[in-house]
Amino acid sequence: xxxxxxxxxxxxxxxxxxxxxxxxxxxxxxxxxxxxxxxxxxxxxxxxxxxxxxxxxxxxxxxxxxxxxxxxxxxxxxxxxxxxxxxxxxxxxxxxxxxxxxxxxxxxxxxxxxxxxxxxxxxxxxxxxxxxxxxxxxxxxxxxxxxxxxxxxxxxxxxxxxxxxxxxxxxxxxxxxxxxxxxxxxxxxxxxxxxxxxxxxxxxxxxxxxxxxxxxxxxxxxxxxxxxxxxxxxxxxxxxxxxxxxxxxxxxxxxxxxxxxxxxxxxxxxxxxxxxxxxxxxxxxxxxxxxxxxxxxxxxxxxxxxxxxxxxxxxxxxxxxxxxxxxxxxxxxxxxxxxxxxxxxxxxxxxxxxxxxxxxxxxxxxxxxxxxx
Amino acid sequence: xxxxxxxxxxxxxxxxxxxxxxxxxxxxxxxxxxxxxxxxxxxxxxxxxxxxxxxxxxxxxxxxxxxxxxxxxxxxxxxxxxxxxxxxxxxxxxxxxxxxxxxxxxxxxxxxxxxxxxxxxxxxxxxxxxxxxxxxxxxxxxxxxxxxxxxxxxxxxxxxxxxxxxxxxxxxxxxxxxxxxxxxxxxxxxxxxxxxxxxxxxxxxxxxxxxxxxxxxxxxxxxxxxxxxxxxxxxxxxxxxxxxxxxxxxxxxxxxxxxxxxxxxxxxxxxxxxxxxxxxxxxxxxxxxxxxxxxxxxxxxxxxxxxx
Lengths: 373, 308
What we know:
The complex is a heterodimer.
Chain A: H1 4-26, E1 37-42, H2 52-64, E2 69-74, H3 81-92, E3 98-101, H4 107-114, E4 122-126, E5 139-144, H5 147-160, E6 165-170, H6 175-189, E7 196-201, H7 208-220, E8 225-229, H8 234-242, E9 246-251, E10 262-268, H9 270-282, E11 290-293, E12 300-302, H10 311-325, E13 332-333, E14 336-337, E15 343-345, E16 350-351, E17 368-369
Parallel strand pairs in A: 1-2, 1-3, 3-4, 4-5, 5-11, 6-7, 6-8, 7-17, 8-9, 9-10
Antiparallel strand pairs in A: 10-12, 13-16, 14-15
Helix pairs in contact in A: 2-9, 3-4, 5-6, 5-10, 7-8
Chain B: H1 10-38, H2 46-64, H3 67-90, H4 96-115, E1 128-130, H5 138-143, E2 145-147, H6 148-166, H7 168-178, H8 180-185, H9 190-214, H10 228-238, H11 243-265, H12 272-276, H13 278-290
Antiparallel strand pairs in B: 1-2
Helix pairs in contact in B: 1-6, 1-9, 1-10, 1-11, 2-3, 2-4, 2-9, 2-10, 3-4, 3-9, 6-7, 6-11, 7-9
């Protein structure tokens, strides 16, 4: 064969070069010492999905604009061994020393598998899963109290609803989702304690047709304000607006999808959080392993109020938001029952926004129509 | 409370609405696959064709502001995928199933690649005909907003059935599908006819994709298809290669798919994962019920690589 002889040399050259780059890649990964930091972002879906991934990608874009920082991104990486390969290639070939694998399911076992192999690389994961006694110290968790945003959504929705029935398209009954549903209703009940919220679980983070069906079913049931917790809210927002419902956004700003129907939305504020974390690394500091925050800490923000929002709703929204900006807000106040009749909080008891009990929520509060299983 | 609260009536209504709204992609893909399989080839790549059709239809509709041009573009793109499959499979010793799987991955990959700039913009939707004008209930009006493509699908199902039964073209496709030797003896070119049938089948799948992105749910994103293209290929076996049966099976899948959300909104939420599995449980049950211990695969074209 003709290609063996000339190509063996080429092969050796190529593999030498490959080994060289990976060695070069790992060495500076330890720190920002040489004035260059590479940060890797991994998304589970497309980074312009009007939702979860877009919110993170906006954060990545802000990091990219920082001095001396380069960003590598990869999207549509499934929560499987794929993400391990992506992380390792970002470390070995791109020289990334700070990684943001953003999807919930990346943590266990994938980050936990890869992190011990690269002790000099920092892994930052968006969910409150890190525990000091169980997990590597080069892994960190961060998360925002976005339930507060849904609470503010609920306040506006409570003022704007005519039928007294709100609708919620939810992906899976995990604590974060349940907390959003409950907060949305509790916000609305600040306006009128008779308001109910119908929830439909689609069972998956991203199922366009089922989300559309769920939204239609909610509209059919008389819900006139709809919000959601799925990865890409585009379908829910467009379908609900086409049915004449008002919509409250989630994850990112969905105003462009239906400007007249969009009331407000609970958004992540990752640009602020990510630039802060990256700045910490540049300054030679250490990012805390467990970092959380709400409105006051700049972890979340609200979409601008839509043109349909009434003055009363606007005023109520602004005063509650100002209250939250002081920190330590309590959306959950006793007496509070779940929708099966068991007591969650007695009279006078509260869950503050920082309360760890909220992270393991497994119930829907009274007034939510639906079950967790 | 809302005066339009229709209580438990919402469930049958939602099933009807879902059957109309959700079934169209199933219908088109399965009709396309019937056409292809009747000619003796299996094109498993229709899922990729569907996703690419969804993307190209949406992109063209957005760029031209004409949704029907988008549908046309999707059909064209689909037929190119079909043509490619047909031509490659006409080469000796090429396995149509393997090529199909490769094309499925290629189609979705290309759609993701070219579709990036079209996730954010909003393209015009296909028009719908309001058959619910007689009702005061908004639920009924929405349920009976029927897209023209659904009606075209029904027409096509009847047309294909008639074609296979009563026309020369239909007979040619069937001969080629049932016996290559017989077709050659008649002086036909099996590879040529199969390639054309696969290309036409691809066009159908492309239109199915355009329905997804241009009408329901009506936007392009990378998660637009939840496997409709794959399921529809299985539906063909279920429908025993009969276009009319394809229609009923598509309706059945659409209707049962709407069952889960409808039951939850009617306040019967228990075990929704089970309701979501309803279409598949139903398929299994019906396949077992209609299977025969004495005859294998009634209606299967003889040259199909799964029945050979």
